Amino acid sequence: MLDYKIDKDSALIIVDVQRDFCLGGNLPVPCGDEIVYILNKYIQKFVEARAQIYATRDWHPSDHISFKSENGVWPPHCIQNTEGAEFHKDLILPESSIVISKATDSLKEAYSGFDETGLEEDLKQRNIRRVFIGGLATDYCVKSTVLDALKLGFETILLKDAIRGVNVGSDDSERAIKEMIAKGVRIIKNFDSIN
Predict the structure, then answer these.
(1) Which CATH number belongs to the domain containing residue 72 in this structure?
(2) pLDDT per residue as tens digits for the range 86-114
(3) Is there a catalytic annotation at residue 16?
(4) Alpha carbon distance 148, 131 (integer Å)
(5) Which pTM value belongs to this model?
(6) How many domains does the chain have?
(7) Residue 114 domain boundaries
(8) 141 annotated active-site
(9) Residue 5 lies in a domain
(10) Residue 3 domain-assigned (yes or no)
């Protein structure tokens, strides 16, 4: 039986639950809003356990390389200091949460929450060994964050009920999950699996 206990060595990493990735945003993830309520339940568990919570966000300059206007593949999204870059209005982040801004260099793609953000250093400074990861989107920033966490030696647990994918290809999210499992991620299928 797998141990999913939250303790002082654990942290929750919420990936990019921002307005532009939700209904009405510039780059909405299908059904992305569905995970907010579920994530709030996980957040409450981590608050009760006094475990650290991180929230990553895309924090793009207006001329970011990923934008179609700059010959990238995505519409402009999550531009610094705009409403689209704000966290979803119903996501209940405690004041003790640490916000991790990524993709801040206009000339550099950065899907992972660990990509030149200081997240690794902060986790290690707090002696955190186990990370629980959920958010948007399964096949891009969630996958990249999970794979980096594993590569950096963190025990990594994917909150499968608290992720949704873009699915440019119809099976992109399924393939992303298989890749994460192959690299060693452990899966929580639903909220009741955690204590």
Answers:
(1) 3.40.50.850
(2) 999 999 999 999 999 999 999 999 999 99
(3) yes
(4) 11
(5) 0.96
(6) 1
(7) 10-193
(8) yes
(9) no
(10) no
